[in-house]
## 1
Amino acid sequence: MTTDGSSPHPLDDAVALQRLTDDDVRARTTTAWSNMVGPFGGITSAVVVKALTEHPALLGDPLALTVNFAGPIADGEFDIALRPTRTNRSTQHWSVQITQNDAVVTTGSAVTGLRRDSWGSDEAPMPTAPTAEDLPQAAFPAGVNWVNNYDMRWIQGAVPEPTTGESDDSTTTMWVRDHPPRPLDHVSLASMADTFFPRIFLRQGDWVIAGTVTLSTYFIATTEQIAAQATDHVLATARTHRFHQGYHDQTAQLWGRDGTLLATSSQLVYFKR
Amino acid sequence: MTTDGSSPHPLDDAVALQRLTDDDVRARTTTAWSNMVGPFGGITSAVVVKALTEHPALLGDPLALTVNFAGPIADGEFDIALRPTRTNRSTQHWSVQITQNDAVVTTGSAVTGLRRDSWGSDEAPMPTAPTAEDLPQAAFPAGVNWVNNYDMRWIQGAVPEPTTGESDDSTTTMWVRDHPPRPLDHVSLASMADTFFPRIFLRQGDWVIAGTVTLSTYFIATTEQIAAQATDHVLATARTHRFHQGYHDQTAQLWGRDGTLLATSSQLVYFKR
């Protein structure tokens, strides 16, 4: 409950932290973010960013985050240990470890830092797309809760339905925003960078056992540029280069509707097919 | 020196390890791999892979590696601590830390694992290119040693010369192999994935202060497919999506000449301009 008695946003609820020490916080899973096994990977990424931004020794804002999904997080509490491993003048390096019942379930690392004015270039243009308002909100079959926390609108590569069939292109491009709407910040952007269903679904035209092994997200935009998106849709695109012996890569980019590249991410996914 | 009295290959020399404990090995910098400040990042990635592949508890072969360049490695010895944080049935997660004189200089994580037969697809085609033999070997100005360990042949986006000028495209595509030639393995591939000069050089047409902050490499090919490349050239391509406030992303793919996608990588780079 928030101070005015209303329920918190599902994202804020899922990243609520209880501080144990400077370096350790406790969080818990929420049913709203459950995936096929354990919670949605994006919310794990988001709760680490939340913990980073609340760490008393934080320098700057998030530049890069890598999370490795070592084992499924069971329903209930889990502990996040964030340790600043090296603090430089303008960058700070962090080790990340999530444990649950004394088992390591997630490892990772992060880099935070100060930004400064420099030459810049928005080299990669945002893909052309119909406006979000002109596209229907995607519907998903029941059973996976986390998708209900997003308003997704397919531009290319919709999640397969029983009649869809195979595809020779792993690309999904979509408009995505939190549902209900919530002003964009590093926390929600970290989660959004993982909202692409596994690319193997698209190629196979079918739901397949699959999960992220490791996920790296780079925050290219400033805090102000992220905040400027407010509750607007973000244009997100992802693709795979190769599927081989149970693993595939995925690279993704997320733009603000104003054409600002907010974040890029890459992940390695395992699949069984 | 090797057992027959010949000098070892510069790459093997740079990744030679002295075992301290199961989890700890000692290595040292070599002048052949020096960069503008400290050693070339690729060789740091490679020495971690070497340490992984020699760890007595290793399961499978490298799937993913993230290294964060926390501070420059000074000339001399450094210690690599590799700790298996979680071992599953088919995957194993590792924490990586390099220290020198009690300071953390590099952090990271790795995933190793067993592969199994699955459906597969080489979705992204190798860029079309003239054969390596039809292109001249790239020349670099003196001062940065590591480039001399590679035979690079530009297809697109050569390293800028004083008269080159700015470019509106950050893409470099090249043939690259170890110089002198050395059979490809995970160790050399890890280093090769970082052989792109900083993309900011290309856009600015100038050498600029720049360095990798974090680098993630995914090994998509099997050990056999990597070994099958032998000493042949690899086709490598990299680009940036956005340069902003002192940082830019880079995504890269590396193919065997036979069209096999061997690895993908992404990195975040800082620059001053």
Note: Chain A touches chain B through 64 residues (CB under 8 Å).
## 2
Amino acid sequence: MKVQVLQNILEFNDTLADQNRGVFDAHKVFVINLMSSPGAGKTTLLERTLKEGVLKDYRIGVIEGDIRTTLDGERLEALKVPVVQINTAVACHLDGQMISNACTALDLDSLDILFIENVGNLVCPAEFRVGEHQKVVLLSVPEGADKPLKYPLMFHESSLLLITKTDMLPQADVELNAIRSNALQVNPTLDIIELSAKTGAGIAQWGEWIKGKRTSCFGK
Amino acid sequence: MKVQVLQNILEFNDTLADQNRGVFDAHKVFVINLMSSPGAGKTTLLERTLKEGVLKDYRIGVIEGDIRTTLDGERLEALKVPVVQINTAVACHLDGQMISNACTALDLDSLDILFIENVGNLVCPAEFRVGEHQKVVLLSVPEGADKPLKYPLMFHESSLLLITKTDMLPQADVELNAIRSNALQVNPTLDIIELSAKTGAGIAQWGEWIKGKRTSCFGK
């Protein structure tokens, strides 16, 4: 019964997500849905990405999803990019309708890349498409190597895994190889980039990945 | 409309949670619902708690909730306590019905304390009572100090915050005082214990907290 309710919600959401995708394609806006546990470093990654200038030839926008507060939105707005903050109140994920509404507050013709920072949650966001071109999951080193096995849908649905906070490897009892092999067991086609938003390691590679995927969609 | 569906599910869940609580009270089993983001250290905390023997005068049982895998359940079963593993498949939280079912596999008369390790998720588990006496939230140092403000329901509903992985403070750009003040802003009556399951710091205090709360419920 509960599963049935979920199915209907998901079907309705997929219709809205397809509509969003059509709008993004028409405006040539490449959309990345960033997902992870709370505190894996989504906002810090976006800050560093913007500060490093690895995407300086592209016009960037951000939709910021949080249960409450505008803390993350404010951090990114300080970097002079257009930001729309969604507060989901009770919902533990963004959905197609929320993104459709948020887009009315953005000038899509003035954007090349739109980052959607989802609510911090390693479960539900994976179930709700929002019209994105790419789903990217972040897993921070301190969370542990078993997470891809325990939350497989998230890693199965994503095309890129960013292993974040690699600067914490010396303190964490976590092996990078174990994260990699567990993630690839769930999704053998997953791309993987190791990075640290603190030291800047891997940020250039992350920028190249985005450019390559955008070019595959829309050309140079 | 979606909120309405959620309301009905929550009302039905509350009825089941009340029934579970009645069963736990009848058997004098003190039940703690452990909640946190993925990777905050719930299983490692239980391992260390059992190994340290801070609850050696009590008979312990564990209900282990995960989307998939029995990895955590196996880690705890190795420590010779009865463990029931629930795999929730699509659900991002435990609910009253799941706990009721799991209890049929436990001999409640042979337990004094039952730990319920919820699915790793800082959002939904806070909405679903399962019949517990105490809700305890773990926040690990690397997750950052803003989490109580961004996920307030979890911190509002819990009676104890365990700040975990304090051994990582030197590497994390996180202030303990900021975690404390943000958490107390959301819930001024919240108890707070700082601990490290790696070094053992704070584990004795956590044991004393449990004993005190259990005595308040059931006497010595």
Note: Residues 2-26 of chain A form the longest helix (25 residues).
## 3
Amino acid sequence: MKAYALLGGPAGQWPTKIATVFHRAQERGALIVGVDRGCLFLKELGLSPNLGIGDFDSLHPREESQIEQVIPDVRYSTPIKDWTDSELMLHAVFHDYHVSALYLFGATGGRLDHFLVNLLTFARPRLRSLAPKVHLIDKQNWIDFYRPGKKIIAAKKAYLYVGLVNLMAVKDLNIIGAKYSLRHFSSMYPRAFASNEFRSGSDNFELTFQKGLVAVIYSRDLNRFANV
Amino acid sequence: MKAYALLGGPAGQWPTKIATVFHRAQERGALIVGVDRGCLFLKELGLSPNLGIGDFDSLHPREESQIEQVIPDVRYSTPIKDWTDSELMLHAVFHDYHVSALYLFGATGGRLDHFLVNLLTFARPRLRSLAPKVHLIDKQNWIDFYRPGKKIIAAKKAYLYVGLVNLMAVKDLNIIGAKYSLRHFSSMYPRAFASNEFRSGSDNFELTFQKGLVAVIYSRDLNRFANV
């Protein structure tokens, strides 16, 4: 079973066809998950989430009771905690529902502390093993996560650019067969390499590294006023 | 002298009063800097940048010649390079123009590989010493950077939340006197702590740490459709 989750990030950053994406996923038996305000957003998109997680602090009591009526499995987090809402959600979908993959929406845009929690949470040792099963998607970005080894990075039709970020210390990172190569890069701190591309006529390149966690960010340009 | 720079990020993420901010800054003698498409955006806002930096690859030749006519100091970067456009800009404003502070706009939203370059660039050893002089600002976030020591983090009127991110390994991080405290936190990898707040009646808290680089992210909620 796959899971599709919507977090509380601004609607302006969602892919334009998000309603279709979630409805099709639900028809195919995917677990539909709302995190905090994402529960309400899903309801407004005409979906009945299977699982809801959050402290729901920012919601009106009426909204909160709507969530409890509609969602069969609601789990409450507390603001003073070691685990964030997103982390509780990861634990629930992978450990309790045993999903094989998680597509995460509403994780970007708006407050940058929220986005950075959603991105950097995968560097935590207890969540690192889940990272390769997670895909973080918004209107113009698709992020996959890789653990050490030799990986083939395949092109995605709708995305021209591919950036790489070592989210923590990395050892002997190599990018082979992309437009811009990188050889034997090691670093004690995170670094982002933006705007790489697939070579013309090639639909993949090789990524190898020995230690760390690497995010691969597929992205595309939009009209400059697309977000206004 | 202070510098105000506009990068190529989407206009939808700029603070709403960005034109006023830049015009006032220029009246007060600040250096106005455009990076790549940011040069054109500044022109459209009615400003004459003092410095322009970029590969200008995505621009029409006509747009490029406009930039050369209007901006007295234009510096070209190459796509195959160790320094990004933003890094070249940092070098130019701090080493050539000797500015005391840099206010950076258009660094967020849109392509996440671009944003992460703009954020993580300050973890690079040769740029780390500049970080405390840089303020990264968009519609709902204000990011400051801190190097090790004992710091007083002051509240900012327009922002309810304050998040912290250690952008690299950190040693003995303490948050004292905020709504949520943190004691003796050390980590080999970056981690984001979102949604902290100033205590009611208090307009600051203490941040101490021994090693690393910490980003303090002031943020606020906006109407959920503000970005649509």
Note: Chain A touches chain B through 54 residues (CB under 8 Å).
